[in-house]
Design brief:
The chain has helices at about 10-20, 30-40, 45-65, 75-90, 95-125, 130-160, 160-185, 190-200, 210-215, 220-240, 240-250, 260-290, 290-315, 320-350, 355-360, 365-380, 385-400. The longest helix is centred in the middle third of the chain and has 33 residues, at about 260-290. With about 425 residues, it is mainly α. About 80% of the residues lie in helices and about 0% in strands. The two termini are about 25 Å apart.
Length: about 425
Amino acid sequence: MASEGKNRIAYLVTSFVLLLFLGLIYAWSVFIGPLEGEFGWARSQTSVTFTISMIGFCVGNLASGAITPRTSPRVSILIAAACAAAGFAASSFTTSLLWIYVSYGVLCGFAVGLGANCALSTALKWFPDRQGLASGALLMGFGLGSLVFSTPVTMLLSSLGWRTTFRVLAVVFGALLVLAALVLKNPSAEWSAAMVAKARQGGKVAQHDFTTPEMLKSPAFWVFMLWIVFVTSVGLALISNAVPAAEAVLMAQPGADAAAATLMATTAMGTISGFNGLGRLSAGFFWDKFGFRATLIFVSGGMVLSMAACLLADMSLSFPLIVVGFVLLGLAYGGSMSSCSAMIGSFFGTKHYSLNYGIASCNLIVASLIGPTILSALLDSSGGYFSSFAVFLGFAAVSFVLLFFVRRPKDPVRPEGGEE
């Protein structure tokens, strides 16, 4: 049984690579230009695709939580392979908004959520003693996906066109997910029980494995969810508008050149993706080394400093300062993603991680509705980003206060003779 754990790094690496590719879902913006150029769609119409894909992602997470424990990682990942291949292939035949909403938003979003949750939950079963660091490393891959693959996909779009690019992605994602399905597997019950017992002795994971209903009845879960919604609302709002926000600072300067401003703003946006990945790994390390409280301070504190830097950049028209804000935004947003995964394992146990994490990830649905909606309303009313930065600085400050109310949950009281 001791030799079984020697292969766990292979499962971690496989999951990392899979999540790296699945992270391409965040790079939807590279497809916006070609689609808007061909069909004349407005940005408000094409941006709905990303929102739908995030909802599909959350639904896929929930589906993995229901399917994987009842079958196997192989079944879930093969379903994800079929949905991803079908989604990208169908996207290549797009002729209407409804078509791309369903093909990319629903099918691809669902496939990514299903595959990502399965890969993450399966790999973490091999690391009950390193929940934070393993979560951070895996989610770093997911966060870096858009940064790593945006340029290659953009090159494909330029040389092959968007229809052929979608077909290439259908083949790549389908094949990759099938290969991952052949590799990933759960540890044996005996090995897992021994490692979880050891991790519990070291305080790395919860002493009790909360079922999903038990988790949902815990005040600790809802306080944490409130905290993360405030953080991710800021993150999703600003990440989705990073390029125009940076362009607004650059174009307000004397003698500004539109082409150069767009290039510099796009480069600045890339720093968010890079530091998003670094933030996920850093927060995972913090969680294991210094505990959850220090990690939440790292995340909320970073978000406060980020919004303050962006606010000052808007006031002073300082491009370097807004880049600093973007760097801190990436670190904080990425850290919140790792914190969510680590919280489920260390607060509520590993046995029901897949479904519990799927439910926790639904904070993205709430945040994607709150953050971007507020930003759009403020942008329409004011014509600039100053008021948005000010409001989201307030959001970040609220999250900093809330983190001190986050507590580990108490074990639920079970009826005498009840099952563990």
